[in-house]
Each structure stands twice: as C-alpha cells, then as structure tokens.
Amino acid sequence: MNIRALVWGENVHEQENEIVRSLYPQGMHTTIAQAIAADGDIDVSTVVLQDPEHGLTEEVLARTDVLVWWGHKAHRAVDDAIVERIAARVFEGMGLILLHSAHFSKIFKRLMGTPCALKWREAGERERLWVVNPRHPIAAGLPEYFELENEEMYGEPFSVPEPLETVFISWFQGGEVFRSGLTYRRGAGNIFYFRPGHETYPTYHDSNVGLVLRNAVRWARPSGPALTSIHKAPNVPVDQAIEPIVERGPKLHKPGEEGYK
Amino acid sequence: MNIRALVWGENVHEQENEIVRSLYPQGMHTTIAQAIAADGDIDVSTVVLQDPEHGLTEEVLARTDVLVWWGHKAHRAVDDAIVERIAARVFEGMGLILLHSAHFSKIFKRLMGTPCALKWREAGERERLWVVNPRHPIAAGLPEYFELENEEMYGEPFSVPEPLETVFISWFQGGEVFRSGLTYRRGAGNIFYFRPGHETYPTYHDSNVGLVLRNAVRWARPSGPALTSIHKAPNVPVDQAIEPIVERGPKLHKPGEEGYK
Amino acid sequence: MNIRALVWGENVHEQENEIVRSLYPQGMHTTIAQAIAADGDIDVSTVVLQDPEHGLTEEVLARTDVLVWWGHKAHRAVDDAIVERIAARVFEGMGLILLHSAHFSKIFKRLMGTPCALKWREAGERERLWVVNPRHPIAAGLPEYFELENEEMYGEPFSVPEPLETVFISWFQGGEVFRSGLTYRRGAGNIFYFRPGHETYPTYHDSNVGLVLRNAVRWARPSGPALTSIHKAPNVPVDQAIEPIVERGPKLHKPGEEGYK
Amino acid sequence: MNIRALVWGENVHEQENEIVRSLYPQGMHTTIAQAIAADGDIDVSTVVLQDPEHGLTEEVLARTDVLVWWGHKAHRAVDDAIVERIAARVFEGMGLILLHSAHFSKIFKRLMGTPCALKWREAGERERLWVVNPRHPIAAGLPEYFELENEEMYGEPFSVPEPLETVFISWFQGGEVFRSGLTYRRGAGNIFYFRPGHETYPTYHDSNVGLVLRNAVRWARPSGPALTSIHKAPNVPVDQAIEPIVERGPKLHKPGEEGYK
Description:
Four copies of one chain form a homotetramer.
Chain A (H helix, E strand, L loop, with lengths): L2 E7 L3 H4 L1 H6 L4 H10 L4 E7 L9 H5 L3 E5 L9 H13 L2 E5 L6 H7 L6 E13 L13 E11 L9 E8 L4 E10 L2 E6 L12 H14 L41
Parallel strand pairs in A: 1-2, 1-3, 3-4, 4-9
Antiparallel strand pairs in A: 5-6, 5-7, 7-8, 8-9
Helix pairs in contact in A: 3-7, 5-6
C-alpha cells in the first residue's frame, strides 16, 4: 500500500511576495508535494494554514502516515489545540518532517522541548550538504555531498536535543556550519528535521532535495497501527499483577482510582 | 564554592494524609534537602508550591545551580508561566532533577516533549535498582544493586525520549521493569530523572537514595555561567560574515529585521 | 526483491549434547532459519563453523544482506581473518544480528569495542521481555511483553556501548534485569543484539521469538549498495579542493602520498 | 587531589623532520603536556613510543587517570598487547583523549570498532571550530568559535559510531566539514576525540586548544575506583539467586563451571 503523506503549507509568502510566487506559483506546498509524489510510491495531499482547522482535522490526521511541514512567518497563527492534536498523532506513530524555518514552528518546539534557535543570514550564499551517515535510508542515492548555490545561512549552535543520528552537516560560504539533517523518535513517531528551503530560492525544485524528501517520508512511515495506548498511564491492579504479589504497607490511592496528571 | 541546590516540594500529601505526615513530618522536601546536604558540599534550600510564585521567582532561580522537583497530586496547580521560567533557566544551564511522580510534572513533560506515561501499581512491593552504568558519576559509591522493600511499581513502556545514558533499571516483584535513572541535556542544562520516591514509603530516608541524590546534584551542576544567548536567534549581517561574501539573489527580510518566531 | 539472510551456526552443542540435539535435531541454525523464512519475504541459507572458511567466503558474504549469528562454546575457533572479513562487510552495509551467547563472539566484541560481559545463571527460570520501544520496527506485531518460561538468566551490567535505541528489557524470576534488544549502526551496517536463545531450551521454536527474528532481518537490511569507500581515507589534492584554496605553510606529505595507517 | 594525566607521544616526526622539530623542539608530547599542566590542577607526565613497553607498563597505567594520545606515522609500531592493556584500563575507568591523527591509532580503532576513516588535505588552510554544545564541560570558557589559521583538513564522512555528544564541528576553507569533538563512554571510561593538531603547524601552542585539552582531561577523569569487575562474566549460582528460585529444565553447565569466551 502506498504511503500517505500530507504536506502542510503556511501559504503566506506566496500570497504576499512576488519573488516567492514566481518561484512557487502554486504555492511552496504544491512543489514540495510534487517532489514527494515523483516516484509513485507515495500518495500526497496538501493543506494550508488558511483551511478550516488548518486542514488538520482528526480525520485527516488519522489517515496520514507522514506529515511534512513548511512554515515561517505565521508560526503564531497556528492554533495551540491543533499543535497538540499533531503531537498526539506523532506519539501514536505518525511521521513528521520539518522543513527549514519550521525549526521555530510550534509543533517542532513542542516535540523537542528546547528553544530550537540558531543563527541566520539571508545572503543567497552557497550551502554544501555533506552526507555524514552514508547509508542512512534518508541519504539513499545521494552523492557524497550536494550543493545549493543560493540559500539562507543557518548557523550553530542549534539548540535542539542530541539527535538519534546526524545525517547531514552543512558548510556555508560565509564561514558557518549547521547540522542539517537530524533524526528523532518521540513516542512511536519518527521525526526528521531538514534544513534547506528558504522561500526566496528555488530549493524545492532541486533534484537532490526532492530525493531527500522522498527518502525521509519512506523512513518516517509508521511501522504498525496507531499506538493509542501511549496516552494512558494505566493502573495495574494488585490482583492482576503478572507475578503474584501480596499488597503491603500503606497506600494513598483507592482501588480503581485514576493517577494524578 | 558550594553547589547551590533548591528542593521544590508540592507539599500537599503531607498536609492531607496522616501516613505521609508521619513519614515526613517536616515535609518530603525537607527530608530530601537533608539528604542532599549531608556531605556539606551542597547548600540546599527548600520552597513549596504554596509559596508566592511557588517559591520560584526570577531571583531565586538565578541563584540556583540545581533544582530538585517532587510533585504528584497538584501538577496542574503549577502556573504555566513559572514552568516556562524554569525551562528557560534549564536551557541556560541550571540542572534539574525530577523525582518519581514528577514524570507527569508540567516541567518534565515540557522539556521531554513526550507523554512521559507509564504503568503503575501501589502495592508496597519490592523494587531492586540495578546499576547498568557502573561508573557514571550518578552511580558513584553504589553497590551493584540496591533494594527498596516497599515501593510503588512503575512499568514500561515509559514514553520519554531515548536518554543520553541509562544509569539504573528497576526490577519489580510483580513482574515489571523500568528505566529508573535517565540522563538528558536540554540546551545547556543537565536533567536527571530518578524513579523511586512514593509518598507513603520511607524512600527518602534510604541511604542509597540519598547518595544518588547527592551524586545527581553534583553531576547536574552547570559547567559555566548562564547561557543567556540561547534564547536568541541572531541575524548575522552580510557585511559581518566571518568569511567575506557578496549578497546574491532575492531576499525577504530587510536589513536589521528580526526573524519570525 | 527478497532479502537475503544467512544464518551462521556454531553447530557444536547439537553434535555433543543429547538435550540440544533433541530440541534442534537439524541444528539450531536450521530452526532459526526456518523461523526467519516463515513469511516468504526473506530467502535464508545456513552455514556452520565446520564449513570451509566457516561458510563465510567473500562470495557468500557479498551476496548476504543480513547475517544472523549463534555461537557459544567455540568462539575461539572462529578464524580472526574471517572475523575481519565480516566486520568489513558490516561497515559496507551488511546487517548483523547477534543471538544470545554471541555477546561473547569475536565479531560482536570486535564491533562493539568493549568487553560485552554480563552475569549468567542456568536455572531454567522465567524471562519476561518488555517492549520499551513499542513501534520500533523490530517490535512490530508483538504484545506489550512476552515470556519464555525456561531461559538462562543474563544480568546487568552488560558492558556494551550505549545503543542507538533500546527495544527490549528482560525481567528474570531470580531478581535480575537485562537490556535484551539493542540496536547499533557501525559504518553503514545495522546491528541488533537479541538476548534469548540458550541451547537447552526450545526458545527458537517460540512464535514471538520468530517474529522478532523476522522483524530484525527486515530492519537490518542495507539501504543501498555496498559502501566500499568506507575502507579508504582519500587524500583530496589541493588543486581539487571544492572551494579554491592556495596551499600555505609547511607540509609533511608529498603530493599523491598515502596517509599513515 | 590533582588529576594524573599522561601524555603519550609518538615522537617520530620531531626526530626526522626539521619543521616539526622547530615547532616542537622538546617533542609534541612536551608541548601538549605543558598546555595541560598550565592551571596547576593536573599533574602531567609524558612517555613516548620508544620507551620500554612504550612507557605504558601496568604500573604506569594503574596510576593514570587520563591518557592523552598523539600518534601518526608509527601506528603499526605500537604493540598489540599494549593496545589491549590500554583498552582494559579504559574499560576500568581511565579517561582517554585521542588527538588528530590518532583517529587511525590502534587503540582508537580498537575502542570504536569501526574504520575511523576520513578525507584529508594538507594545505595549511583555515579551520574554524564551532562550539555546537555550548556548556559541555569540554567547551567551558571557549568563545562561540575559534580558528586555526593553518591546519590540515579532515573531511566527512568520519566512520566512527554515533557519539554520546558532539561538542565541535569544523568548517574548512576548502569546502569540507568535520565533527571535531566527539565524546564516548566505553565500559567505565570516558573517551574524547579532538581533531586539530597536525605536526607541521603550531596548533598545540594555541591557547584555545590548550583550554580544550585541560577541559577534556577534567571531563574524562574517572568517577571512582578502577572497575576491575568489568572483565568478568560471573556465574550466579542458583542457590544464591537474590529471589529464591528452583532450578528447572535441562542444563549444559556443571555447577561452578566457567562460561565460554
């Protein structure tokens, strides 16, 4: 069965800025979705910030294997309740791919638990992404490195948790470095942060970037049904202990009582 | 210079429950603080939920090296703004030690970004903590394992991120296991989760538990001054790039403009 | 295309011990191979210690996606040169699954770089494997825990490097715990250590164990062609630097000279 | 009590090459030792390859807290038995710091279990080390980045295991990046790899490099007495099980028998 990916686009720059519109006339989300769909093994839809519930209803998320996120100017416009809804689905196993300025999205900061800050410079300089983990599935088919002739610079320190694995590290013409491809697991969900993709450059038309996007969606797909039990902290009654035990000592909770949250 | 530790106590069970009061007549926070102070190299204060601002003013946190947290019944009573204030200090380098039911505290969930759920059973059963990382500083001076004859059971899966290092794993009489000592770094701050400490048992009077608390405070202390820069995402102007570069291509931001958050 | 797995069996206990032979009349490797082949998506062969080159010629390894290893009594009989040959293939991307007493195999110690020691007791006691990482691909389809009524005990501390992820933790009847499922990447190769499988018990006839074996083979498969470049430390000539640079200062090596190894 | 550091020098280039001798007239090991001793809290000795047993007798290693290693041309001249002796001490808790070309030393490859290969270019180009983990103890007191105006380039992929934490990432003038400061724990021992230090440049006279060396020695010191138990895989007799159990089922080993290694 095909993987079901959903690309979420902020869709603001495209409406306001002529440069961005000329690069992405149908919106950045559309170009991103086309890159992901290119091999035919991934079914891709798109939704945008301006849709009801930002396009992220319970029903839509329930049938999404991997969510791909591009946002920048309107991070604060994303509803907190929907951020929690996305987080819950990640914990249950939905994959999540965060692109570029999504380092400051509510959902990424929510899942990382850290500031996710960095340095930046918008000078159209050269970025060279080195593959430091050459057979990680997300790097499949890539050369040793690939270049983006014009990109925004992001510089370290990038205040995120130590990742499971570092896949890419970027070299910038102006003298900085950046961990450009980082993997995480949160609950049952696989998370990938991928640095490139400033709105004023044609990054999502680049073939290597497209390959990374497809690889990342394949890597992030769930390995089983939704882990809905992750939201519960069940009491195990004494008489249902796997190994027979006898209750001892004082206790606070009454039988069958819920724990405190 | 002595390490400056601050023990935060929820201080509710002690007021409401005769069993807890009899075990901890001056409050659980006081017993925890006494254990931490026992070697004389750590200066310890205590504050409680009921203090103004829960005792956690900017001034108090600014002079705290390591915060130790015990909470259970009143997680929701902790003010969100103060949770953010603590998180900010952790990012700057303050150590944080979470005890037992603090797995569901707002501050732990905030920093982990995950549900932090688990199984539980209150039967006074035997817990045996195995040291799986025998020369980790937090395990210094401990035997191969130590036992708590009466404890609440916490069982896996514990929905937290993969830790930097696992220090302890618990065996429970009723058949479960639990990762009982886990280390994390978030921003510049060291974080340690330590499982034991149910309020109806004398856990914080145990000498091995006291040793772990002291070791953990020493391990978690900051290695330098507050990293206040972690809250900023500075723009690096093109003419201040370390390596000279020439601005190219279109850009979105005006010179000196702030980034979007 | 089917995954190509190769099961390596030490094949000594089966020849010497009536109990083992009665449990595994065609050899433990055969039972392991049958479990792996059960779903039809994996092509499985077997080789044994006693084969020429232990069955692990360059040709055989070159066409192996995932090698599964069971050894115990004859670790020292494995030729060092063949251990290096296997390691080289792992670095190039071949998956490797180490079973039970293979914790002391030359190849596991070679790849971990640590003693890989542990406690043990042969008492036919109950082992309960808890899934601590519920949607890790290796745990797909498993219940919360599964039991082996008679197993050898392995106890912590297990002196291996901190893993990428911990998948299983075992509870033992006699009071110990053990990290029973650990993942690593070494070079381009995925490695999984799986604890159960003492030769005097019918462990490899257990359906949950069989499911883990199949999942592990699928998880460990290479994500691309052999990374043969991993064995080289190439000199990048100054005039082929990606960014033009001018050679400066003194140097030790002559142009085109090999580095020191 | 002062930390006891031991600097091991290969001491070959200094004898053969006029450039190296002019930079390090008393040997590279002496300059490295002076940098480590500068604050007075670390007692430093030096030994060299040419000493009996390379200066690394059991007695010397037994009283060493942290061993610092610089080697390049004569990796193969280091005796395998002494490599194993060092490894054993690391497992017991001795810290180990590997400098620059020590990425290909026998002891580093032994402990990592991987090829430890990389790209290189000797062009005296600029290296800029970015601190990506700003309050890691090894980065204490450093600015955001520091530069070495003339260094050898090392480029990714660096075939080492995923580290516990990445402390530094280098930018090179010719277009490459490299993970320049990596931490590991192997057994009870802390390990730090630090990239800079090519013999034809004055790197070990640099004040930031000296600060990193001192920080690293302090970070790597053991947190307790030698963990000699790590070399054993003890049998736990059934009648000494912590929780009483009854032996069941068939068994292979006789009471008191050693396990197979």
